[in-house]
Design goal:
There is one protein chain. With about 110 residues, the protein is mainly beta. Strands 2, 4, 5, 6, 9, 10 and 11 form a 7-stranded mixed β-sheet that branches. A 4-stranded antiparallel β-sheet has the order 1-3-8-7, with no helix packed on it. A hairpin with a 4-residue loop joins strand 5 and strand 6. It is globular. About 30% of the residues are buried.
Length: about 110
């Protein structure tokens, strides 16, 4: 089992920045990929970014150049630095870990006001 706890969401004005954190615990040795997803009201959950164990990263087109995913192995934590935020980035952001199964955090709300 893997437990994920997100933090760092909040309310920010358009053009501002936020950094989300996702702390993993449990069977972290089994994790091969860490991801951030988001789900806006009335929309399906979408992949925002992921990072593999070898450091490879990938981003949704809508966030390329604005968001950066990174990790701190010593802290078992993955981050999502979000810059130049737009109102359309408003959503609940979820951290996910892929290991023996797919694990999910509880989500953190990000609201960007115009």
């Amino acid at each position: 089992q893997v437990q994920l706890v997100e933090s760092g969401g909040g309310l920010v004005q358009a053009g501002g920045s936020l950094r989300l954190s996702c702390a993993a615990s449990g069977s972290i040795f089994s994790i091969s990929r860490m991801s951030w997803y988001r789900q806006a009201p009335g929309k399906e959950r979408e992949l925002v970014a992921f990072i593999l164990n070898n450091g490879y990263t990938n981003y949704a087109d809508s966030v390329k150049g604005r968001f950066t995913i990174s990790r701190d192995g010593a802290k078992n934590t993955v981050y999502l630095q979000m810059n130049s935020l737009k109102p359309e980035d408003t959503a609940v952001y979820y951290c996910s870990a892929r290991g023996a199964n797919d694990y999910w955090g509880q989500g953190t709300q990000v609201t960007v006001s115009s």
